[in-house]
């Protein structure tokens, strides 16, 4: 199950789609988190310092949310660079999954939520083709993360 299910053409178009949104990693990463916290308020409970923030405006200004948004986008960017090398890809996804499962105890359903919001944002900003070409990548990421969680006993 360690091999990637993306063709070379799919990898190329996924990278092209990702580049568009990653061009403004901090703002777009922030927008994704703010939308997640607003639409799924229970996800805020994992971030103790975001708890008191209720308005999207306030969240957008938060250095911690901006910092984490950038971090999320950087991690995905690393994965996108290694879509054609399953060993390198897993070398990024595995420690990330383990940390979220064991130390941070983040419910794995939140990865799907965040991926879906990224896809929504892609569609809003760059159209349906952009979203479509990245969809397989998000499935790949979520599948691998879920597998790591299973291995960690979730």
Automatic annotation (TrEMBL):
Keywords: Heme, Iron, Metal-binding, Oxygen transport, Transport. InterPro entries: Globin, Globin-like_sf, Globin/Proto, Globin_lamprey/hagfish. It catalyses: Fe(II)-heme b-[protein] + nitric oxide + O2 = Fe(III)-heme b-[protein] + nitrate; H2O2 + AH2 = A + 2 H2O; 2 superoxide + 2 H(+) = H2O2 + O2; Fe(III)-heme b-[protein] + nitric oxide + H2O = Fe(II)-heme b-[protein] + nitrite + 2 H(+). Its EC number is 1.15.1.1. One of its GO terms (molecular function) is superoxide dismutase activity. Residues 5-150 form the Globin domain. It holds the Pfam family Globin. Belongs to the globin family. Involved in oxygen transport from the lung to the various peripheral tissues. PANTHER family: CYTOGLOBIN, GLOBIN FAMILY PROFILE DOMAIN-CONTAINING PROTEIN. This is superoxide dismutase. It comes from Prunella himalayana. The lineage of its organism: Eukaryota, Metazoa, Chordata, Craniata, Vertebrata.
């Amino acid at each position: 199950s360690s091999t990637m299910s993306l063709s070379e053409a799919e990898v190329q178009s996924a990278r092209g789609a990702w580049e568009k949104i990653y061009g403004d990693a901090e703002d777009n990463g922030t927008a994704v988190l703010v939308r997640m916290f607003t639409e799924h308020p229970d996800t805020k409970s994992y971030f103790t310092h975001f708890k008191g923030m209720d308005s999207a405006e306030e969240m957008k200004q938060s250095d911690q949310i901006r910092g984490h948004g950038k971090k999320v986008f950087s991690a995905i960017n690393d994965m996108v660079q290694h879509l054609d090398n399953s060993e390198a890809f897993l070398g990024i996804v595995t420690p990330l999954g383990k940390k979220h499962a064991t130390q941070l105890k983040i419910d794995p359903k939140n990865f799907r939520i965040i991926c879906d919001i990224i896809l929504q944002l892609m569609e809003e900003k760059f159209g349906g083709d952009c979203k479509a070409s990245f969809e397989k990548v998000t499935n790949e990421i979520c599948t691998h993360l879920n597998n790591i969680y299973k291995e960690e006993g979730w």
